[in-house]
């Protein structure tokens, strides 16, 4: 089975490739010649995932899936949420985003947060969505050099390490993207 994963993020592609069984071949946007800046203008994480999958299906004709992920911090009314990638501005710089989040949490004692990933699958003319959530908290300082995005300041429930201090294998076992991809793989396995 060959399917397009609508991403240009090499970290995300590598993470998801490690989660899918060998009978599923993932094609990236680069593989299908898509260099478009795919719109992400929806007000929700689920809406952005659907918008990206529909864009590839409509403009390139491929069965595909797309994801969108947001970090939701309880004390900040679930910010940055759908704006996670561009929280500190359009430059989408992970360090700027983390610095702003840590600054906005300085006066907060509640550091409860969750990562949420929604995958939208466009396959055989129908649309399905799969959601993965990982609960945890925001640390007071950055720690670790694995992963990407907010991983150096997110500590999942039940662990004393941030995502950035964990191996990719361990992160995938407990993480939001791993959970959503697991549901996607279960769905695709039933179609074999």
Description of the structure:
This protein is α/β, with parallel strands linked by helices and 192 residues long. It has one domain: Maf protein, CATH 3.90.950.10. The chain is built from 5 helices and 7 strands, in the order βαβαββαβββαα. The protein has helices at 10-17, 45-60, 94-104, 168-174, 176-190, and strands at 2-5, 25-27, 64-73, 79-81, 112-123, 126-138, 154-156. The longest helix is centred in the first third of the chain and has 16 residues, at 45-60. The radius of gyration is 16 Å and the shape is globular. The termini are close together. The model has no long low-confidence stretch (mean pLDDT 94).
Order of helices and strands: EHEHEEHEEEHH
Radius of gyration: 16 Å
Percentage of residues in strands? 25-35%
Mean pLDDT, all residues: 94
Name given to the CATH architecture: Alpha-Beta Complex
The largest sheet, given as strand count, sense and whether it forms a barrel, is: 7 strands, mixed
* CATH topology (level 3) name: Maf protein
Number of helices: 5
Which runs of at least 5 residues are low in confidence (pLDDT < 50)?
none
Helical amount: 25-40%
């Amino acid at each position: 089975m060959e399917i397009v994963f609508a991403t240009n993020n090499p970290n995300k592609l590598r993470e998801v490739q490690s989660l899918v069984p060998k009978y599923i071949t993932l094609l990236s946007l680069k593989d299908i010649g898509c260099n478009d800046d795919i719109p992400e203008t929806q007000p929700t994480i689920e809406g952005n995932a659907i918008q990206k999958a529909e864009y590839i299906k409509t403009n390139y004709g491929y069965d595909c899936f797309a994801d969108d992920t947001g970090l939701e911090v309880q004390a900040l009314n679930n910010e940055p949420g759908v704006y996670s990638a561009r929280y500190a501005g359009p430059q989408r710089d992970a360090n700027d985003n983390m610095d702003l989040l840590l600054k906005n949490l300085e006066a907060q004692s509640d550091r409860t947060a969750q990562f949420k990933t929604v995958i939208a699958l466009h396959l055989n003319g129908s649309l399905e969505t799969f959601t993965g959530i990982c609960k945890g908290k925001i640390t007071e300082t950055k720690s670790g050099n694995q992963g990407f995005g907010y991983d150096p300041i997110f500590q999942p429930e039940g662990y004393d390490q941030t995502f950035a201090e964990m191996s990719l294998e361990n992160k995938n076992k407990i993480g939001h993207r791993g959970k959503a991809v697991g549901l996607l793989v279960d769905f695709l396995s039933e179609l074999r």
